[in-house]
Amino acid sequence: GPCTECSCASGKQPDKDPSHTKKKENGDRLCVPKIFFGTRTHKQITQISRELKRTAYSCVPMTILSSRDYTCIHPVVSNSSNRNEMCVELLEGKHGKSCSYYHGVHKLSEHHALQPAPGLYQAWDIEDLVSLGRKLRACPYFAARELMVGADIVFCPYNYLLDPQIRDSMDIHLKDQVVILDEAHNIEDCARESVSYGVTESQLRAAREELDFMVNNNIRQKHHEPLRAVCCSLI
User: For the chain, what are the domain ranges?
Assistant: First the structure.
């Protein structure tokens, strides 16, 4: 069969991989759809990948998308309260430093343990990915994203599929793909959460103080007064 250690694994030129395209008679390529498997929690992904391991499909190319809370291994970022922001700042080199784990990402995404090969490869879960990432000093978060390019099945929490902002940032395109939602009765709650926003009383009080200042100093008064009224009524 075709060599599975192909360029698609590194996120480049997925169309070159013979196993992912079926030739139509007229020479057009027909893409094989990916399966996006959404679950309610990260814990359920672990259970499902364990089940996948027990089936005849244990060696299909796969990936698991999850947040930096589960997959960041940078000693400073992983212990911070806002991992996403710190990660982005590091990658942009804002403070003259970068992330060596990110620059080693190909060591992980191209590692033989994650490249489907009959007899050698087995379905993996987030813990497997993270411990291999620690060993190789390579970023599991971005490796999982790179592996999505060549994956036949992509596991992720529901909101990665339902929330348009996350879909966009994760580069998930669902057109013509297969979507499976596990325990779909939870979808309504999840959809509500993705368009809801939590705010604390102290944040409201701080906002009211700022709006007081604006109104008292005649700064766009007619815009700020109704906002202040909303803050007061909520408080």
Answer: 35-195, 201-234
Identify the CA nearest to 41 among candidates 156, 169, 124, 171.
156
The residue length of the chain stands at: 235
- Between strands 62-64 and 153-157, the pairing is parallel
55 Cβ contact list (under 8 Å, min separation 6): none
CA–CA dist 173, 178 (Å, integer): 11
For 35-195, CATH gives 3.40.50.300
Nearest to 64, CA basis, from 83, 79, 84, 49:
49
Whether the Cβ atoms of residue 121 and residue 59 lie closer than 8 Å to each other: yes
Q: Which of these, 190, 128, 130, 121, lies nearest to 151 by C-alpha position?
A: 121
Helix, strand, or coil (residue 178): strand
Model confidence pLDDT, tens digit, residues 97-145 = 899 999 999 999 999 888 877 667 789 999 999 999 999 999 999 999 9
Q: What are phi and psi of 139, to 5 degrees?
A: -75, 115
At 128-137, the pLDDT tens digits run 999 999 999 9
- Whether residue 59 contacts residue 47, with contact meaning beta carbons closer than 8 Å, is answered with no
Which residues touch 106 (CB under 8 Å, ≥6 apart)?
10, 138, 146
